[in-house]
Amino acid sequence: MAHRPLRKGLSGFEAVLVIPESLLDGILASARSGAPREVCGWLAGEGGRVERIYAVPNVAESGFRMHPEAQLSTMREIREASLDLVGTYHSHPRTPARPSVRDLQLGSYPDCLHLIVSLVEPAVRAFRISGGTVRDVEVVVE
């Protein structure tokens, strides 16, 4: 069955992010070991289906900001692997899995999905952030 990442289905979500359980487990393990600092990285694959994660060092003291050189080198790796940039991920060690004001300001990739992992709820949620507008994205774990 073909996966259509952008759709308005029975769930009411505009988009779908499909991620293998093993990759999500890797993100969660990284978030736990990185706490109390946030961890971050890229989600790569095709359409809304994640095939690989690329951890990028966080250089921010609070919140997250990807290391600029590592950010660019991993984007090159994604291109060289003939994958698409599906989105970003980061953790919220002390807050819920919803975009913070800073996340909204950093949402500079409107075509990307944003996966947020909260360690306090615990919860995993995804969003499309564009022009200050936040839309929920369904997360399907396979």
UniProtKB/TrEMBL annotation:
<feature type="domain" description="MPN">
    <location>
        <begin position="17"/>
        <end position="142"/>
    </location>
</feature>
<dbReference type="GO" id="GO:0006508">
    <property type="term" value="P:proteolysis"/>
</dbReference>
<keyword id="KW-0479">Metal-binding</keyword>
<protein>
    <recommendedName>
        <fullName>MPN domain-containing protein</fullName>
    </recommendedName>
</protein>
<keyword id="KW-0645">Protease</keyword>
<dbReference type="Pfam" id="PF14464">
    <property type="entry name" value="Prok-JAB"/>
</dbReference>
<dbReference type="InterPro" id="IPR037518">
    <property type="entry name" value="MPN"/>
</dbReference>
<keyword id="KW-0482">Metalloprotease</keyword>
<keyword id="KW-0378">Hydrolase</keyword>
<dbReference type="GO" id="GO:0008235">
    <property type="term" value="F:metalloexopeptidase activity"/>
</dbReference>
<dbReference type="InterPro" id="IPR028090">
    <property type="entry name" value="JAB_dom_prok"/>
</dbReference>
<keyword id="KW-0862">Zinc</keyword>
<dbReference type="InterPro" id="IPR000555">
    <property type="entry name" value="JAMM/MPN+_dom"/>
</dbReference>
<dbReference type="GO" id="GO:0008270">
    <property type="term" value="F:zinc ion binding"/>
</dbReference>
<dbReference type="InterPro" id="IPR051929">
    <property type="entry name" value="VirAsm_ModProt"/>
</dbReference>
